[in-house]
Amino acid sequence: MDVRKTADQVFIMMHDLSADRTTNGTGFVDQLNYAGYLEYLDAGSWKGDVFADRIDVRIPTLPQVLDEFQGSEVDLILHLKREDSLEVLRIIQQRDMLGQVIFFGNPSVINIIKKAEANAFTQNDGAPGPDSYERVLNNAIEYNHNAVSVSCETVTKEMINHIKRFNKLVHGSFLTSEYETEVQRLVEWGVDFVLGNHTGKMNNGINLKGDVR
Q1: pLDDT by residue (tens digit) across 180-200?
Q2: SS3 state of residue 12
C-alpha cells in the first residue's frame, strides 16, 4: 500500500499523486486536506458500480489501516514516498506493529528508517534488472536492509543466487502477466515473496507445485 501525506498532515493510502483517477475528487494529494474533503470522496465508483457511493469505500488513513490489521496474521507492505517517513515509523512503533510492517521505498527513505530503527524490515523499491541491481544490493549490504526488490520481468537466476549469498531476501516486484507459470518460475529460482496484481492466480501457480507457501 502506498502512503502519502495530505496538506493537513494526514497520512492516507493513495497510489497516485492526485485524487483524480480513483476518486470523484480532483487535485494533488499533498495540496488537499483530508478533513472536510478527501475523507468524503467516493473511492469505489472507478472500480465498479457495486462499490459506488459506499461509506465503507473511502480513502483510508494509515491509522485506520493499522487498526484494521493490528494483531492479525497479515503483513503490510507500506510503500513510502517521502523522506519525512520517520513519522510513519513512529506511528508503527506506537502501535507495537513493527513485526507486521515491511517498509518499501527508495534508499533516501529506507536508509533513514533503518538507521532510526534497526529492527525495522526494510527493502528497496525500483525493481532493478541485471544492469542495475548491484547498486541496490550494495546499499542493502551497507545499511543492513532485509530484502532486495528486483523486477519479476527481468530477474535472472544468477541475480537471485548472488543476492542470497549476502543473506538478503529477494522480493520479486510487479508481476503483471502469466501469473501461474511466472510465479512457479520465481519460486523455483528462490524468490522469497512476490508482488503482483492477481493473488488468486499466483496462489494457484504455487499450489500446482505442491505445498510451497
Answers
A1: 999 999 999 999 999 998 989
A2: strand
